[in-house]
Amino acid sequence: MKYWIFILILPLFLSLPIDIESEFKKPHSIKKSALTQNEIQLIKGIGPQLSSDIVNTNKKLANIKGIGEKRLDYLKKYIIEN
Fold it and tell me: What sign for the dihedral angle of Cα 13, 17, 21, 24?
């Protein structure tokens, strides 16, 4: 009897859409104040000068020299403003 229930339920589990890989590919945001210069440099397109400006200033990201509209939208995936 137990095996019949398993056989009936198994196809239901196999048909569920599970996308585990996409969960690991999603960027995770971290507060700006918690990031170090080296951590910010790990973000694609951010070099030492820009990461230094981000860490050492109290300005919003949009007001930092070198961060335009496109880069700001990109950075918002990774950095949460304080």
Answer: negative
